[in-house]
Write a structure and sequence with these properties.
Strand order of the largest sheet: 3-12-9-6-4-5
Mean pLDDT: 79
Order of helices and strands: EEEEHEHEEEHEEEHEE
Distance between the termini: 19 Å
Number of helices: 4
Helix content: 10-25%
Length: 209
């Protein structure tokens, strides 16, 4: 299944199973209709020499340079940085979020679904804590029923039970709880996550809307 053509890129990511959730928003834009929407690709600032990650960032920024009014890459080390850069670009263009992809590694060995921005980990354990999500919550006013949010980490939407291994007991991944929690943080938007791996392929960002 090729997914997320409605998100940042067309046919750029392939996944087997996708889960999604949305929560109704009370925000109304009838009298303040934005001129357009912006698609965001949020990626962690590399902490070490990771050639592959840096190459993806270079490709994304190159594509963004030709789509400045539609596609923006945010390289960040915290959700506060994501918040500031996202809102700055939205306000500058009087726009709403069209799509927002959180690019992150999943941590299957932990036994639960998650995505990470800098040193901040979001999972079913933390997504309901407003002190952890306040920076993401600040983006809610720029989301509506046409906004798409993607948890771009492996196993980000996993609902199955991770088998027991060694001294570690079996544990449910709770990706559905993470998706629903993020949908509550950003009401109105539809949130997506995958049961399995998130795979990239050559030509990523080659075309998108």
């Amino acid at each position: 299944l090729t997914v997320l053509s409605v998100l940042l890129v067309t046919a750029a990511f392939g996944q087997d199973n996708i889960s999604s959730a949305s929560v109704s928003s009370k925000t109304s834009r009838v009298n303040d209709q934005p001129l357009h929407r912006i698609n965001f690709y949020v990626v962690n600032k590399p902490k070490k020499l990771d050639i592959y990650s840096r190459l993806v960032i270079v490709r994304a920024k190159h594509r963004a340079s030709t789509r400045k009014e539609k596609f923006i890459v945010i390289v960040a080390s915290s959700t506060n940085e994501v918040k500031k850069k996202t809102i700055e670009n939205l306000q500058k263009r009087n726009a709403l979020i069209g799509s927002l992809w959180f690019d992150s590694h999943g941590r299957y060995k932990n036994g639960y679904s998650s995505f990470i921005i800098g040193n901040e980990e979001f999972s079913y354990k933390t997504i309901h804590d407003t002190s952890n999500t306040k920076n993401l919550q600040a983006l809610a006013n720029y989301c509506d029923e046409n906004t798409r949010i993607a948890i771009g980490s492996c196993y980000g939407g996993a609902t199955y039970e991770k088998p027991a291994y060694g001294n570690k007991p079996a544990s449910r991944m709770n990706g559905d709880s993470l998706i629903i929690g993020l949908a509550n943080v950003l009401p109105g938007a539809t949130v997506y996550g995958t049961e399995g791996w998130v795979m990239t392929k050559p030509g990523i960002f080659a075309s998108h809307t």
